[in-house]
Amino acid sequence: MALFDRNQRQRSSFCSTATCVAFVALCFLGLWVASSPEAVPKAISLASAEKAAAKAEVKEEDSSIDATNTVKQGSAKVVAETTTAAAAGDAKGDQASARDQMFDDENGRTEGGELVKPGSGGGDTDGAAVQAGKGAEEAAAETDANKDAGGLDPASTDAKESAEQTAAGATEAKESGAVAGRGTPKNGTFEFDDENGKMDGVDLVKDDGNKTRISEESAKVEGAALTVKPVAKSAAATTDTDTANTAASTTTSSDEEKAAEALPTVQAELLTERAAQNGSFTTQAAESTEEKKNRAEMKRKKGKKGKKKAAGGAAATAAAWKLCNSSASADYIPCLDNEAAIKKLKTDKHYEHRERHCPAEAPTCLVPAPPEYRDPIRWPHSRDKIWYHNVPHTGLAEYKGHQNWVKVSGEHLTFPGGGTQFKHGALRYIDLIQGALPAVAWGRRSRVVLDVGCGVASFGGYLFDRDALTMSLAPKDEHEAQVQFALERGIPAISAVMGTQRLPFPGNVFDVVHCARCRVPWHIDGGMLLLELNRLLRPGGVFVWSATPVYQKLPDDVEIWDEMVKLTKAMCWEMVAKTEHTVDDQVGVAIFRKPENNGCYEKRPQKEPALCEPSDDPNAAWNIKLRACTHRVPEDPSVRGSRWPELWSARLGKAPYWLDSSQTGVYGKPAPEDFAADLAHWRKVVRSSYLTGMGIDWKTIRNVMDMRAVYGGLAAALREMKVWVMNVVTIDSPDTLPVIYERGLFGIYHDWCESFSTYPRSYDLLHADHLFSKLKPRCKVLPVVVEVDRILRPNGKLIVRDDKATVDEIQSVVRSLQWEVRMTVSKNKEAMLCARKTTWRPTEVETR
Fold this sequence. Notes:
The protein has 848 residues and is α/β, with parallel strands linked by helices. The chain has 23 helices and 27 strands. Helices cover 34% and strands 16% of the residues.
């Protein structure tokens, strides 16, 4: 009985203890529930999480944009990238889970289950989201504390994952609510504001020098969740006792320390290809008889080469890179240094050896850089001096130093601004021309100039001070690296020669053609070379000639002058001004004007030079032989060339008078509307993305090339920048180059299946808008990317906009070249890439 009584007392004590424990537990549970009523974590199985991730991956093609941007800043490496689902990370090491977000465009829900209500205020949503996030973080903290204390309950892992996913959903709800204050998503889609450079719901990306800081709230772009996170940041780890405070401090510190480089506000327009057509424009390929033969031959061999070409592209990408084995070494231009083709020439009487002779197969080797190459001196200081080691040639300084062309000064090559004809500087010479013929009106009436035999291009370099744009040309190696000096100085120039073929420009486009002691024998071969200038010169335009025959009385000079007078008279050119040699200027200038109508041609007593056949198109320039004939002047008031264009700068943004609504533009609209839409498009893109959204330091950009220019809209949009743009119109695209010249810009015809006629390391920025995909039917992409590598300077930038498959292919190639891929963006089937060329070069040299 005593035993029984003792057991009864023990049972009563046990029940009391159990009751107290249960009561305390319920109190704690109630307190926790009361403090965070909306944040009860829901257990989500791994299977359901994987199913959600798979669903998001399926939707990625339609609703997400990939954007990657990698940059090294000091010792911290920062990566900005998009994700298509919330990323689960270690709460101690990364704290990224609270920032990874995914927006469901179809129903407006976030992955956390919170419904986004368009048009609602942000206040209530913000408060609920903050509380939900706080509760989830506390749940995660409690789970971690139990785990550290030795609690190994299998449910703890699921509880932790539930808390993290709830936190991600709550954060998404918070940001979605906050969006309503700045711009509400409509129909589940964020709209881009081109005027302000931002998307509704996305903060404006702010540029700080060449680094762009982007807030977490701005990391949501067009249905893609953007994650900005530091890599391997040990400072993020803190104690486990106060996880909520740790998360807040980590977010603040990482925001202060990270500087993600220029992530663009990725508007839909950036990645929308406007369907390009030919419209009412013909092409250079159609105009060139030589090109017609080449295309016929290509079509005949297409069946044989098609499979081989398709198989060769990918294989070549994986091949080991090698340096080019050429005697030109660091100055190698494939189409001008084709030694095998030059040796086979029967004559070089007409400078055939300086003309283009492209290899049968485009090279895939890399051109080495000079051993001590460094970033070029910035404009405008580069006009006066460049680094000697970037263009390590002293021959021109030794040969022309006494004429004030170029001098060696320590580690620099300096350009005093003079030249053979510029004894007192180029600006004084430019003003001498204006004084001789005030109607020249530099920078107003005369905007686009061609300088033949340019030397180191000081004439064109100083015409920038008069707001005139000069295309300078000279043959390669006539004087050592003269065109390379010009480009290194930041002055437009190409390697070309007046030999047996037409220059790659349309007819009737240059306002002024200039030749200062260029030593071109204008009067020989029936005046064929001067007749080529006549083709290029706009009706009413002038030819400025300041060679020695103008002002010296030596027998040879007198003979050349007499022949020149006869030829220009037969061509109906009028000599409108001539200055005599003076002690001060030590140079004389003769200025001839091209006729504005055909009256003189009809009244000529002699018929030489003959008028060209009506079938001879003055705009046909690619692989066309020179002809000793004169093209008639357009007289129909609706035809280009019948009257002078608008004064600069009014001509830049105004559609040319000869584009009318009956013509179809490149993009399918009536031509004037097409022109205006193109300009508006590029102005928005430049303002909203290129200038502030890509991390490009525009102070380092001077020489720019638009590899597929169409109307020259990009160049027009960059007008306020201290850059010049070489607009390239490809031979198989609509011939819009006359439009580019009419608006006061310049450019050149080119076939990107061949090498460009410029020195290596010529350009700071190359821009290719839907170029590479259009080249694929005719040539491989790989050699074109190698050509881009050749002409782009180390640390230069490449921007590619094309279909996603093509951009992926280019990205693969440039990565193999050790380039830095700074940013990629993709949406649906369109993509954009921005990459920086590095100084990397292979060590192995190819065998011949």
